[in-house]
């Protein structure tokens, strides 16, 4: 295939004057490449055209204009929950570890705000425990043992007493007792006393051990025996505290059952006003369910929570209702509410309301006063009208 260049007549022709000159000055083309071929294969050209088209499908053309690969990764990251991306970043920076993400019955991190909050709380709790353990580990051995016993459920006095003894007994050595006979005698006397021996008998055994030069041996054996007794006391105290806790829980359940029975068996609080089953359930719920906590993390029921919000105003209203007779009691402590004053207040309010309605209705020309009143007001109004007419 041969390519010839034909120039516009506005320019000089090529040297030698070869080639036909085409006048293309109208479109101001300076150079036009023309492909000359003596042979043209339609089938081949069509096949090449089809093959070229197949190579440049819309998808392939789109790839030429697709954003770089890092853009795609960014899009994938944007599809992930924001808090999940944040958590991974904090993990990469060492603020979280694999243990923080471990799932259990109460926790599963799924990238939601609530799960991220739980993740932070777990991390803070774990950090707090670690700080706490570090502080405990740096305590003196006796204090650490006392604290561990207290955390295991022993009461404060038992923890201090038994914890101190355990450390003292377990740290005794023979060399220490040989160099300190008074300590050996003290331990031996203490052991004999726990066995119920009298003071005379104890002194006799101590003098015999001293004469036989066995006081250090007796003291060491006494320390070991006393340590074993202290360990038994620890287990006994733990079991005792568990029994006390169980007894308290059982008593609490019994009190709740008694309260529920008392409410269910109360037909009315105010005479003539029966309590429905629904109201009984609401009363029990109000008295037993925790709705808030005070500054000492103690649970509060509905009434206690209300009183905490504004104690002075609550007490003022309580005393006001008491003066009205709402909390009157008999000699046995049974509530005998007197609603007389309360009813008078209600009646006064109703009469004032009716009086206002009467005055307003009186200005309406040709209208019946009772047209603007309900049935109960009409009855009271009729009585009042009769009274006024007869006066």
Q: What report would you give on this structure?
A:
- There is one protein chain.
- The protein has 391 residues and is mainly α.
- It has helices at 42-55, 58-64, 69-79, 82-92, 113-137, 141-151, 156-170, 174-179, 181-194, 199-211, 215-264, 277-288, 302-309, 311-323, 340-362, 375-389; strands at 2-6, 32-36, 268-270, 273-274, 292-293, 299-300.
- Helix 6 crosses helix 7 (156-170).
Brief sketch in words of this structure:
This protein is mainly alpha-helical and 391 residues long. It has 16 helices and six strands. Among the domains are: 1-39, no CATH class; 141-255; 340-389, no CATH class.
The arrangement of helices and strands along the chain is EEHHHHHHHHHHHEEHEEHHHH
- How many strands appear in the DSSP assignment? 6
The total count of helices amounts to 16
Measured on Cα atoms, how large is the radius of gyration?
50 Å
What proportion strand?
under 5%
Major sheet: 2 strands, antiparallel
**Helix coverage percent of residues?**
55-70%
Structural class call reads: mainly alpha
Assembly context of the chains: single chain
User: Overall mean pLDDT score?
Assistant: 76
Low-confidence residue ranges: 5-11, 24-38, 61-66, 71-77
